[in-house]
Amino acid sequence: MRAGLRALTSRGRSFLASGIAALVMAFLLGEDDLFRIGVLVTALPLLAALVVARTRYRLSCARRLDPARAEAGGEATVTLRLENVTRLPTGLLLIEDTVPYALGVRPRFVLDRVEARGVREIDYKVRSDLRGRYPIGPLSVRIADPFGLVELTRAFTITDTLVVTPQVVALPHVRLSGEWTGGGDSRTRSVAAAGDDDVAPREYRQGDDLRRVHWRSTARHGELMVRREEQQWQSRGALLLDTRRFAHRGEGPRSSFEVAVSAAASIGVHLAREGLGLRLVTDQGAEHLTDTGLSWSLLDTLAMVRGSSARSLEMGVSALRQGGGDGLIVAVLGSLDPEEARELARLRHSGITAVAVLLDVGTWDGGQTENYDAVQTVLAGYGWRIVRLPAGVSIASVWQDAGSRGRYVLSGGSA
């Protein structure tokens, strides 16, 4: 009841004050008719407050996002499901959901009445041109009586998160060969082709299939021996993203930094779908990606990546060097000087395919990057494949250049 009294609107407080004044005057003047009017006018806001207060905790709310991940510039649908869990109908409901400014204005709705055990679903759209994780909620419901005397606000605690990922474009298939790496007891090999004598056996373990028993080794060792398990080896690669703020130009969704993030996302998803085991590296070092759902893990990570204050790629190059086992390196780079390019280029050696997506960041200012030609020459000299990406050009239209083999030049000589 106290909550209901605190929720009286200006109209409700006016009714209450008028009713009390009428009761006082009726008592002083001895007017019975005025007393009845005073009782009616006073009782109306009090009864409204009582009714509204009793319905305060009788609504349940659920929210659904479709999809839970949306690309930058794309739309997502938010569905609100309100249920009246009591046997009494509600009054007027004023609904407002909380969304960040980047997703648009706060949606507001009016429901005249929800019957007993009734359910209402409300849809609205959200859209963002900026990557990130955006909380949606909590939902607030203002419950009002039909006369507008009481308005009580209730906020639900439930919130959901919309992940806005970088834009991903489909890339044409380009053959990017590299070393095959993996794990297990032995590298995948045909026993029939290698011959029984070449099989590396191990001791029998509880649960091993008896059909894998290697009888010749069993006789030689005097104990039960089985052929080692063959495991599928997977090609592995690394994706380097240059996030240094000073290495990029422009602002907002069309800046070179956002183009670089979108290009990295497109390349990463493309390679993951082709079966490549991928790790993400930035100028800050290696980023953690989950083994399951690599594409989604990569997109979730890139959704939150921000420009760094680093001045060099030293940590990124070090992370690539320490990782090892990469048959493919793809670097999405902003502006860099020839010496930095040389340090990066030295990661390339025989057995590794290296692709440099060079953003010609000067074209974001209407010109050309001063060091672009020198950097391209250094990387190509070490056998890197060069993909030039100027402003206004989609990564899909230039990705074919990743299939062009560069000339491999050893430090201090050529080969």
Structure in words:
The protein is 29% helix and 26% strand. It is α/β, with parallel strands linked by helices. The protein has four domains: 53 residues, no CATH class; 107 residues, Sandwich (Immunoglobulin-like); 48 residues, no CATH class; 170 residues, Rossmann fold (3-Layer(aba) Sandwich), CATH 3.40.50. α6 runs antiparallel to α7 and α9 packs parallel to α10. The chain starts with a helix and ends in a 17-residue tail after the last helix. The relative contact order is 0.10. The C terminus is likely disordered.
Entry summary:
This protein has 415 residues and is α/β, with parallel strands linked by helices. It has helices spanning 2-6, 10-29, 32-54, 191-194, 215-221, 256-273, 294-304, 314-323, 338-345, 372-381, 395-398; strands spanning 59-66, 69-71, 75-84, 92-97, 108-111, 119-127, 132-136, 139-144, 151-155, 160-165, 180-181, 186-187, 201-203, 225-227, 230-231, 234-241, 277-282, 285-287, 328-333, 353-359, 385-389.
What Rg do the Cα atoms give?
34 Å
Distance between the amino and carboxyl termini:
88 Å
Proportion of residues in β-strands: 25-35%
Mean pLDDT: 83
Percent in helix: 25-40%
What is the subunit organization of this protein?
single chain
How many domains, as an integer? 4
The name of the CATH superfamily of the largest domain reads: von Willebrand factor, type A domain
By DSSP, the count of extended strands is: 21
Largest β-sheet summary: 7 strands, mixed
Category from helices, strands and their pairing: alpha/beta
Morphology call = elongated
